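Section 5.1 Outputs to date
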Amino acid sequence: MSRRLALLPALLLTAVAAVAAVPGSAAAAPSGAELTRASALANDSWDTASADPDFAGMWVDDRNVPHVSYRGSATAKRSMSAGITVHSGARYTYRDLKAKRDAVSDQVRSLRKAGIHVTEWGPHVATNKLRLSVADPTPAAVEELRARFGADVEIEASEIPTDGGLFSRTNDSAPWASSAFLNDCTSGPHIKRNGSTYLLTAAHCVDFPGQVFANGGQVVGTANWVDQGDRTTDTAIITGQGGPYMYVTDSAYQVMSTTPWVAVEGSGVCFNGAYSGQICAGQKVIKTDYCTDITGRLVCGVSTAGVWGTQSAGNGDSGGPVHIKSPRWAYAGTIIGAASELQTCTRAPAPGRFCSEMVRFNSMRSILDRWGATL
């Protein structure tokens, strides 16, 4: 069975103007245990912190220390768990940053017609600024973007996305598990919606509504709901009955938590596509909650994670789960595609497959909100 994964490259290159540093190949992999503790602390503090109207963002730094920032001064009501560094004095709240992101969404097509190709746009919480990734930005383009979106916008150069960067196990049965082969892609987490249990996959894996999806010659179900419009999640619901399981090898599976995981910048995650398998070592989130049109549609709530020097996912992995292993096995999102240049895959099945070190994924919470569903 072939696998069609969504891998659209957007390799982050040298910044043209103000730009946040992107981890390089020489960077040391973070300590797994320390990263796990920091990621768990950030996740478990997210709801409390983000409920504050002055919340400006949360991230984990390169020393595996969680941070949370607020507009104005930090007060007693914002006291956080031990181990979290609290910052005050942010200019923008997180809601402000997302509003700035959405303002770019309104203009991205007109910018494209003007010859300015913005490939990603969203908040950079560590600097409290809007960050734009632009394909081959010229000084004139930078000037125009700053005029439209503010003098403090961060602008970095990115590679122009190309086709073939979308990622798509072998003989499962109902209730269907996530990270299994599903046509040319990968089965995503199960969801509960309107009293029934279904499976997710990537919308770009669906050629037409009602398309039949199979695993190992067995029919799983049909794509009856496909989120393929603008400002969507690039997810589709397959009618086959899903279960609370995720394959961690070709034959072993794990029962997953019903609580979604919030992966902030700097968090550790795992990718788990049918073709590439579970990849965890050193995988770290470097961007969150941005918008992009790499799938051919405007998709928001997207994050990027990976580690330089490791092929994190590849063709056929699209729709597969992004998750955390500790302190609980929980879903963080679903795989979209590549966020760095494509390489010939080194793991079997390798012929004809392309993989990427940095990979884009959707937020599990955004997906559940979109469909009015739970895990």
